[in-house]
Amino acid sequence: MTAPLLAIHGLQAAYGKIVALKGVDIEIRPREIVALIGANGAGKSTLMMSVFGRPRARAGRIEFDGHDITDLSTHDIARMRIAQSPEGRRIFPRMSVAENLQMGADATEGSEAERRASLDRVMALFPRLKERLTQRGGTLSGGEQQMLAIGRALMSRPRLLMLDEPSLGLAPLIAKQIFEAIRTLNKQDGLAVLIVEQNANHALRLAHRGYVLVNGLITLSGTGTELLQRPEVRAAYLEGGRH
């Protein structure tokens, strides 16, 4: 079996006295899409942010490509070519689309040719951004801002892309375009993806494997198809409303 690209062992994390993760184990292999689903407050975003050291792990170990990154700085973690598109997009609203994308490129070292290739890739995935390169990020629609947030992450030429709620607040057609772009990146570029998503149905259909996080603990794991068929998953995340 292929060695994992990202391996998280016994991860514990907290905000002050509030324990968000209570000993989480997950793995993401090269060229794999992994979905992390769970209710609001389960600890999904905390897990993703802990990979970048914010918050710091209180216990456990985070490895990337065989290297222990648990105590590295956020900057050094990004330089290992892990990129994140955070919940809420967090683009720079007063900067142009081109300037936002440049900020992503600046997260890692790369030649001018590599930056140009990354920009061409983003423009091919999201043609709307090409039409709006000089437009301020804050004037884009919600869907365009999500495209920009993902595009900014892709500018660092990541080996692992982490997406936190990429479809949140988007119209179904725009959300479908976002998921299709993720599938394309995985199939054509071999990009490994960790996706935290409130739309469990879309996420598990997209993913090779998935994990269910409940109150800071992994309670279920399996292929995306297996989890879609589990009655407890269907009841909690597919038939019982959006989480």
Overview features:
10 strands; alpha/beta; globular; 6-stranded mixed sheet; 4-stranded antiparallel sheet; Rossmann fold; 10 helices; 2 domains
Order of helices and strands: EEEHEEHEHHHHEHEHEEHH
What is the CATH class of the largest domain?
Answer: Alpha Beta
In the CATH scheme, what's the topology name of the largest domain? Rossmann fold
In percent, how helical is the residue content? 25-40%
According to CATH, the homologous superfamily of the largest domain is: P-loop containing nucleotide triphosphate hydrolases
- What count of domains describes the coordinates? 2
Strand content: 25-35%
- Stretches where pLDDT is under 50 for at least 5 consecutive residues are none
Distance between the termini: 33 Å
> How many individual β-strands?
10
SS-based class: alpha/beta
The shape, in one word, is: globular
| Rg from alpha-carbon coordinates | 17 Å
| Count, helices | 10
- Main sheet: strands, sense, barrel: 6 strands, mixed
Give the strand line-up of the largest sheet.
6-7-8-3-9-10
Average pLDDT for all residues: 91
| CATH-level-2 architecture of the largest domain | 3-Layer(aba) Sandwich
Can you put this structure into words, describing what you see?
The protein is an alpha/beta fold and 243 residues long. It has 2 domains: 1-80 and 160-243, P-loop containing nucleotide triphosphate hydrolases (Rossmann fold, 3-Layer(aba) Sandwich); 93-158, no CATH class. The protein contains 10 helices and 10 strands. It has helices at 44-51, 74-79, 97-105, 112-125, 127-131, 142-154, 172-189, 200-206, 224-229, 231-238; strands at residues 6-15, 18-28, 33-37, 59-64, 67-68, 82-85, 160-164, 192-196, 209-214, 217-223. A 6-stranded mixed β-sheet has the order 6-7-8-3-9-10, sandwiched between helices. Strands 2-1-4-5 form a 4-stranded antiparallel β-sheet, with helices on one face. Strand 7, helix 7 (172-189) and strand 8 (192-196) form a beta-alpha-beta unit. Helix 3 packs parallel to helix 6 (142-154).
